[in-house]
Every structure is written in C-alpha cells, then in structure tokens.
Amino acid sequence: LSPKERKSNAGRKPIDRLRLFKMLVVQKLYNLSDEQTEYQIHDRASFRRFVGLDPEEEVPDAKTLWLFRQQLTQAELIDELFERFAQVLNESGYEAKGGQIIDASIIPVPIQHNSKEENKQIKAGKQPPEWSDNAHKLPQKDTDARWTKKNNKSYYGYKDHINIDAHHRFIRVHAVTDASVHDSKMLAQVLDIENASDDIWADSAYYSVNMEATLSLLDYASHIHERGYRNHPLNDEQKASNREKSKTRARVEHVFGHWVTSMGGKLVRSIGIKRVRANQGLKALSYNLSRYVFLQKQATSA
C-alpha cells in the first residue's frame, strides 16, 4: 500500500499510512462511522495526539479513510496486521498460555427486506436477476448474511468465532461466518496450536461424543461443558462439573462484554462477508491493542 512514486513535488503530499491505520483503530475502539471518525479527531485533542496530528494539521477526510480500509480489505492485509501484532505480543512476554477458550458471538447487520422468492434464490446461491437491472439496488443487498435462532429469538447477520488464551485473554484466532453456521463446525478452524497448554474450554454448543474423541486423539484436554438432552438431563455431578468449568470459560464473555460496553456494540453496517471479516479483523486487532495497553499499565504500576 505504499504511495506511488511522485514525479514532482507539486501538489499535496501523500497521507501517512500509519496515521490512517491509527484512525481505523480509533474507529473500531468507539464503533464510529467514517464521518464520525473524521469529526471526532477534529474535535478531540487526545484523538489528534494518538493519530499523530498537530493542532493545525488537516484531518484526512471520511472518503480517504474509506478508501484506505478498502485497500486493506482488497489486499487481504488485515489478517497480516493481526498476525504481526501477535508476534509483538509474543516478543513482549504475552505468549498464548493457560489453555484456550473458544466461543462465538452473533454479529447483527441491518435486516434485508427481500421477497420470499428473492430469499429462496439467495439461499440457493443465486442472485435475483432483477437486481442486476438496478445499479443502485445491488450494492445495498447483502447476499451473505443469514438468519439464526438463539433462545427462541431470531437474529440476522454473521458470527464471529474467537479463541482467547486463558491466561492473558488476548484474541489469538478468529473467523467470521454467516449466522447460520453452528458454533461446533468452526472449532477446528479456531484452534490455536501455539498455546502452551493443551486445555480447551467451550460451552455446551461444542459438545458431542465425536468432538470429545477427536480432541482426545489430538492430545487436547477437553473442558467443554456437557449437554443435557430430552429425557436425559444432566445429573448433579455433571452440573457441578459445568459450574467449575464456567469459572474459566466465562473469561471469553468478558471479550464480548468489552465490545458492547467499551467499543460501541457489535452491530455492523458493512455489506457482504468480505467487508464484515475486515471489520471484525480490525475489531479483534483493536481489542488486542487495548488489552495490551491495559496489561502494560498494570505491570508498570505493580
């Protein structure tokens, strides 16, 4: 993403890519739109200092920020940035250890108002032909998001599957799917082979006899919650075991809670799974940056 070589010194100088990246971090930490990000950096001296702008310098506009994020998305560099910061964490003494905790959270997006026939075609992997005739309609249609039910309530959007280490609680692996994908289907994809411990915690959505056998063959120590079934409820011993497992497993809920209480919630207004993956990748990276600063401050004050 380096700027093209300049033929002369005439015209405005290219904007520092590091400043644009810092603007994206501000955006994800507070769940701001591009326009809100531009305004808030104009308005807040602390944001200006973080981005690296002097009081009299011009703030890059919302369109420039959007284009930079598009460049990162198209070049598939967000995952690379996430991995590079993971290396920084390892070099700073924050290696993944203590076991891994896996969970998924629904990422809602604005509901699409499609006809039954349009939804039928989308589920079949086809694009309704009439959308191609409207140049303004097609870019506003999300054909990747899906419906799912949780606790008898329907949700529309995607799922972010994450893996945190139990000790430092950084996000080590993440993956985005549409909301209809069951949590257990993604366990293998979000396993962290670099975690120093073989322990794995997850809720009962990940439990099955086959899953337990597979993890055992891979030499993992499973602490996945057991599940009760119709006419076969959990006994007292199993319930007590689940409560004990929850003491560690609940740490992953703190990540999702931080997204909601400190990072502006989980709603995403991007269209299409590629953009949602980029959004969630930046969010995971921004969370890890925030967590790193918190732990560094703790270590300094100790």
Produce the secondary structure layout.
Layout: H1 17-30, H2 34-43, H3 45-51, H4 62-74, H5 78-91, E1 100-108, H6 116-123, E2 146-150, E3 153-165, E4 171-178, E5 199-202, H7 209-217, E6 221-224, H8 236-249, H9 251-262, H10 273-301
Helix pairs in contact: 1-2, 1-4, 1-10, 2-3, 2-4, 5-10
Domain tally = 2
Protein structure class: alpha/beta
Shape field: globular
Residues in helix, %? 40-55%
The counted number of beta strands is 6
What order do the helices and strands follow?
A: HHHHHEHEEEEHEHHH
Provide the low-confidence segments as ranges. none
What is the count of helical runs? Answer: 10
Overall pLDDT metric: 92
Radius of gyration: 22 Å
Beta-strand residue fraction: 5-15%
- Major sheet attributes: 6 strands, mixed
How far from one another are the termini?
40 Å
Provide structural commentary.
With 302 residues, the chain is an alpha/beta fold. It has two domains: 17-74; 96-109 and 145-301. Helix content is 43%, strand content 14%. The protein has helices at 17-30, 34-43, 45-51, 62-74, 78-91, 116-123, 209-217, 236-249, 251-262, 273-301, and strands spanning 100-108, 146-150, 153-165, 171-178, 199-202, 221-224. The chain is globular. 26% of the residues are buried.
Task: Report a brief summary of the structure.
The chain is of the alpha/beta class and 302 residues long. Helix content is 43%, strand content 14%. The protein has two domains: 17-74; 96-109 and 145-301.
